[in-house]
Amino acid sequence: METMSADYEVSGEGLREAIKNGDVSAAKKLLNQGVDANYLDKRGSSLLHLAAVFNRTEIAFALMESGASLYCKNSQGETPLDCAPATLQFKMKKKMEEGGQ
Fold first, then answer.
1. How many domains, the chain?
2. Which of 7, 24, 85, 100 is most deeply buried (CB count within 10 A of its CB)?
3. CB-based contacts of 55: which residues, under 8 Å, 6+ apart?
């Protein structure tokens, strides 16, 4: 379910908010504006961790296409794949095999 695109700060924190809100178009726009796909928040989680936790498949794929690391670990030592629900894990692994990473 895609929500209306709001105005987000062109930063890692802005992209983090778009992910939390499930705002796919804003997330893609921020990535296109140069926001770092490997940004880490104050807790040491990457944007891909956040997309995985919130089960945001389309945003996770956009992050992967923008170079987000599937192997970076958060403060609990988990990769984004570790944080993803099983169905998203499967989709992310399949995308990796198809050349997404």
1. 1
2. 24
3. 84, 85, 87, 88
The structure tokens listed for 35 are 């926001």
5 lies in a domain?
no
Going residue by residue through the chain (101 aa), what tens digit of pLDDT does each one get? 444 457 899 999 999 999 999 999 999 999 999 999 999 999 999 999 999 999 999 999 999 999 999 999 999 999 999 999 999 999 999 998 987 55
Q: What is the pTM of this model?
A: 0.89
CA–CA separation, 65 vs 42, rounded Å? 24
Q: What is the residue type of 11?
A: S
Length in residues, the chain: 101
Is residue 63 within 8 Å of 48, Cβ to Cβ? yes
Classify residue 47: in a domain, yes or no: yes
Determine, yes or no, domain membership for 67.
yes
